[in-house]
Amino acid sequence: MDKSIKKNYIYNLIYQIFIMIIPLISTPYLSRVMGAENIGIYSYTYSVVTYFILFGSLGISTYAKREIAYVQDNAEKRTKVFLEIFILKTITTLISIFVYCFSFILHNKYSLYYKILLIEIISNIFDISWFFQGLEEFKKVVLRNSIIKILLTILIFIVVKNNNDLWKYFVIVVMSTFFGNISFFIGIKKYLCKINTKLEINKHIKPAIMLLLPQIAIQIYTVLDKVMLGAMIFDKSEVGFYEQASKIVRLGTTVVTTIGIVVSTRIANIYSKGKTEEIKNKIYKSFNFIWLLGFPIMVGLIISANNFVPWFYGKGYDKVKYLIKLFSPITIFVGVSNVIGVQYLVPTSKHNKYTIAVILSAIINVTLNFLLIPHFLAIGATISSVIAEFCGMIIQFIFIRKELDIRKILLSTKKYLIASIIMGIVVKSITIGWTSSIINTSIIAILGCAIYSLMLIILKENFANEFISFLKKKYLLHCTKRKVV
């Protein structure tokens, strides 16, 4: 299979931009209609359910994507791997459902919502996006998820009218997930074939569990913060503030880490062929990509938060401005950890190092949560997450110091960092005193992009030079065609 990383990245980037636009449409509406407390209830209960989905998955999604990538060129082997993993995931999810029903559905303050969220766990059985990602068939995943997101947004505006409609919002979310996952089975037969060999389900359990550990740890400082906030603090509005701030920052982070989904699959395939140097070259390019997008997004969040939050969320969400600014460095920390862990350590079967780094980060996060949340509420949870992500990044750097050139990686940040800082200073100076409005926020974003791009050209950054060369070639080709005509 001759797949293009650039093509698959574009598919994923379009989708990530798309899922960034969707909240820009629905979040302002929901924050006003449901209020911070209801948003907090949704965030808290959904966070609890996330753990049951995680344990039901048994770390299979990350592991399965890698295993399918190893055998993507062999129809019989990939069919065998698919069936073994799908059956295993079904069994583990059913066990998770059994525990969930006895733990949360009965005699719970939010039992109605937990009953609805049961469908979300059931949907997990039918999530086979890992199969298509392993085959590098990202177009199918993107198109189907995009259609579901559009329908979800339309239903929100039609059905959710006031703060009594929280349960309706839960129903819309879980049903969109269910039908979205079911849709993956349409046309799957052409990727599978009949096999005569015996299925070996048990052999996948241990490696899947090994990859479950880092996923649990990651969920600790992406989800447990909200669970701990909800459990330790009576006012669920704090959870709502934290949810809204983290959502915005992590959307930016998602754009930065999108390439990881594509590159990790390709590296797994390259690793199976023993091409070590090619892997390193792709990793160095991935770091440059993280710097290219991560630094301007981080600075952009800091300088635009004051203008963005008031008109986007409405009254009563002032605290979100400060949380976004505190959260912003995560864009870089998560991006770097994604390159080292997801793109390098996991595909090259060094997941033990990845697991250790993430578990240590999780321990730091939980410890700091217990110390900071009672005193600083959502701000304490935010500080804990940022410190945990930073520690995770440093630990992973230590693990790869003998395999990759750390000095080369760090020096490659120079031009991107300088361009981002200058962009931030110039834009902030120009926009001091501007009132909060969608127009002003848009101008800030456009101005920031323009200044950042200009600085990269002035600094003669390689990516900018390559892009300009590309445009020149296109222009000369166009002129040549016109002369011929």
Please characterize this protein's 3D structure.
This protein is mostly helical. The protein contains 19 helices and no strands. The chain has one domain.
Short description:
The chain is mostly helical. It has helices at residues 5-33, 35-57, 60-70, 75-105, 111-123, 129-134, 138-159, 166-182, 205-232, 237-271, 276-313, 319-327, 330-345, 351-376, 378-400, 406-411, 414-431, 438-458, 462-484.
Task: Record keyword descriptors for this entry.
mainly alpha; 81% helix; 485 residues; single chain; 19 helices; 0% strand
Topology:
Blueprint: H1 5-33, H2 35-57, H3 60-70, H4 75-105, H5 111-123, H6 129-134, H7 138-159, H8 166-182, H9 205-232, H10 237-271, H11 276-313, H12 319-327, H13 330-345, H14 351-376, H15 378-400, H16 406-411, H17 414-431, H18 438-458, H19 462-484
Helix pairs in contact: 1-7, 1-10, 2-4, 2-5, 2-9, 2-10, 3-4, 3-9, 3-10, 4-5, 5-8, 7-8, 9-10, 9-14, 9-15, 10-11, 10-12, 10-13, 10-15, 11-12, 11-13, 11-17, 11-18, 12-15, 13-14, 13-15, 14-15, 17-18
Mean pLDDT: 80
Count of alpha/pi helices: 19
Tell me the major beta sheet.
none
Beta strands, count: 0
Order of helices and strands: HHHHHHHHHHHHHHHHHHH
Radius of gyration: 23 Å
Tell me the overall shape. Answer: globular
Cα(first) to Cα(last) distance is 38 Å
**Class by helix and strand content?**
mainly alpha
- Uncertain segments: none
Name the helicity range.
over 70%
Number of domains: 1
The percent range for strand residues is under 5%
